[in-house]
Write a structure and sequence with these properties.
Layout (H helix, E strand, L loop, with lengths): L4 H29 L4 H11 L1 H46 L1
Length: 96
C-alpha cells in the first residue's frame, strides 16, 4: 500500500500560491491601469474577497492541523496489519 500524505499538501500549496499571485496581480494591474493608488486598490480587493481569503487560510490551517491525525491513522493501520498477520500465522500453525 502506497501512502500519499504529502501529495495533497503540495496541491493545496500550489493552489494557494496561484491564488495569492492572482490577487496580487489584479491589485497591481488595477493600480497601474487607473489613477487609484496601490493601497486603495489593495484595500478594495481585500475587502471584496475577504471571505474567500479567510476560507483559504482556514482550509490551510485545517489541513496543517490534520497532519498528525493522518500519520496516526497510517501507524494504526500498520499495527493492525501486523496483528492480523500474527493471528493468521498462529491459526495456520495450529491447523497443520
Amino acid at each position: 500500500m502506497t501512502q500519499r500524505t504529502g501529495e495533497g499538501y503540495a496541491v493545496f500549496a500550489a493552489a494557494a500560491a496561484a491564488y495569492v499571485f492572482l490577487v496580487v496581480g489584479i491589485i497591481i494591474g488595477a493600480a497601474l491601469q487607473g489613477d487609484i493608488g496601490i493601497v486603495k486598490s489593495a484595500d478594495y480587493w481585500i475587502e471584496r474577497y475577504q471571505t474567500l481569503i479567510a476560507a483559504m487560510i482556514a482550509l490551510g490551517v485545517g489541513l496543517w492541523a490534520a497532519r498528525p491525525v493522518y500519520r496516526q491513522l497510517v501507524e494504526v493501520r500498520r499495527q493492525s496489519a501486523i496483528q492480523t498477520y500474527e493471528i493468521l500465522r498462529e491459526i495456520s500453525a495450529t491447523s497443520e
